[in-house]
Design goal:
- The chain has 3 domains: 1-102 and 270-328, 3-Layer(aba) Sandwich (Isopropylmalate Dehydrogenase), CATH 3.40.718.10; 106-260, Isopropylmalate Dehydrogenase, CATH 3.40.718.10; 337-364, no CATH class.
- 41% of the residues lie in helices and 18% in strands.
- A hairpin with a 5-residue loop joins strand 11 and strand 12 (275-277).
- The chain has helices at residues 15-33, 46-52, 58-65, 89-99, 123-126, 166-181, 197-210, 223-232, 244-257, 296-308, 313-328, 348-363; strands at residues 3-11, 36-41, 69-74, 104-110, 131-137, 147-150, 157-160, 186-191, 217-222, 239-242, 267-269, 275-277.
- The two termini are 25 Å apart.
- The strands form 2 sheets. The protein has a 10-stranded mixed β-sheet, sandwiched between helices.
- Helix 1 (15-33) crosses helix 10 (296-308).
- It is an alpha/beta fold and 364 residues long.
- Bound molecules: nicotinamide-adenine-dinucleotide, 3-isopropylmalic acid and manganese (II) ion (MN).
- Its main location: cytoplasm.
- NAD(+) binds at residues 77-90, 282-294.
């Protein structure tokens, strides 16, 4: 029996809806396995700007520090899009990652075979499934480099500097190789070393780290090719390790291979057990408040929390299996476009009865 303090940062848009679902699932898991979760809400993002004038109030950072982990929904939305960079809701997320030293962002992209028809790729391309772990560097690179605007005769110029230190690359590479040791032992390091100096350093350091992992096969790939290869043959990938911005982009792409961005969880980790767990999607302002958001990314993020921060492996698997069962039972949110018959259609009754069957199965 464990007792765990979870800081819950619901944020904006669909953040509160998906966090509620994840907290309910954690609560239920706690009941079944005899653990207690103490949820403490904190403000960050647009809602924090509205209520306190700051996107990341000090009280939020303090609560996070006093907690065992963080569950975060999403931040941002059109209401705050005209604020200056520092004042924007997204700055809160970057601030939390940096303040808490959460440099390693694990983004697993696994296809649920019940959703194979929601994958836009041909059936023979996904075969018996894909299972990719994107290891994204999270506290460096262009997100945290020097940035600004400069006046010039010909108008304004804006810049964002991409840079990486050897230490930053080394620690994320170690994380990727350690992960690969528990998987298929293949790492693809994604960079733009044909153009960027920071990528050339990245490639050198990743290669050096690989010498400590003789069992792991390392390949290097340029990011443009990687974006293409993900669509052409996603099964070639096991672990992909990459920079902050490339990881951000490639993980959204990978999510669509699994059927929807609403499915992919993530864990943001530093040294030690503490972590922040968040879906990879954003605040989805277009569907916020309608209770139609897919909660699976947030629910699976809570499973990652149990595994990575609390060492509750069986409990994490239980949540993951429950998600698989629900999908196998035919439940779908609207973001999943597969051949499942929507209950509003003519074949409604057939679909409803298959749902009832699913419920019976789940209860048994
Ligand atoms: P988004 O991920 O919010 O939405 C992209 C599309 O995917 C939308 O059509 C949305 O409806 C859909 N979608 C996303 N999550 C879904 C879910 N769980 N269920 C069903 N559909 C879902 O990306 P965006 O539109 O580029 O960004 C919107 C806002 O969110 C911006 O302010 C952005 O900065 C912010 N954002 C925040 C985070 C975060 O807090 N971690 C991540 C990405 C974007
Ligand atoms: C994500 C988001 C964030 C990022 C934004 C909102 C700062 O897109 O978590 O994927 O780019 O890291
Ligand atoms: Mn993103």
């Amino acid at each position: 029996m464990g007792s765990f303090k979870v800081a819950v940062i619901e944020g904006d848009g669909i953040g509160p809806e998906v966090c509620r679902a994840a907290c309910e699932v954690l609560e239920k898991t706690g009941e079944i396995f005899g653990h207690e979760f103490e949820f403490n809400k904190a403000l960050a993002g647009g809602i924090a700007i509205d209520e306190t004038g700051e996107c990341l109030p000090e009280a939020t950072v303090n609560l996070c520090r006093a907690s065992d982990s963080i569950l975060l929904g999403a931040v941002g939305g059109p209401k705050w899009d005209d604020l200056s960079g520092e004042a924007r809701p997204e700055t809160a997320l970057l601030g939390l990652r940096e303040e808490l030293g959460l440099y390693a962002n694990l983004r697993p992209a696994t296809i649920h075979m019940a959703l194979k028809n929601a994958c836009p790729l041909k059936e023979e391309i996904i075969g018996d499934g894909i299972d990719i772990l994107i290891v994204r560097e999270l506290t460096g690179g262009i997100y945290f480099g020097e940035k600004g605007w400069k006046g010039s005769k010909n108008g304004m110029k804006a810049y964002d500097v991409e840079s990486y230190s050897e230490a930053e690359v080394k620690r994320i590479a170690i994380r990727a190789f350690d992960s690969a040791m528990n998987r298929q032992k293949r790492v693809v390091s994604v960079d733009k070393a044909n153009v960027m100096e920071s990528s050339r350093l990245w490639r050198r350091v990743v290669t050096e780290v690989s010498h400590d992992y003789p069992e792991v096969e390392l390949t290097h790939m340029y990011v443009d090719n990687a974006a293409m290869q993900l669509i052409k043959d996603p099964r070639q990938f096991d672990v992909m390790v990459t920079s902050n911005i490339f990881g951000d982009i490639l993980s959204d792409e990978a999510s669509m291979i699994t059927g929807s961005i609403g499915l992919l969880p993530s864990a943001s980790l530093g040294e030690g057990n503490f972590g922040m767990y968040e879906p990879i999607h954003g605040s989805a302002p277009d569907i916020a408040g309608q209770n139609t958001a897919n909660p699976i990314a947030a629910i699976l993020s809570s499973a990652m929390m149990l595994r990575h921060s609390f060492g509750l492996i069986e409990e994490a698997r239980c949540i993951e299996n429950a998600v698989t069962k629900v999908l196998e039972s035919g439940y779908r949110t609207y973001d999943i476009k597969d051949s499942y018959k929507i209950i509003k259609s003519e074949e409604g009754r057939e679909s409803v009865s298959s749902m009832i069957m699913g419920c019976k199965e789940m209860g048994s």
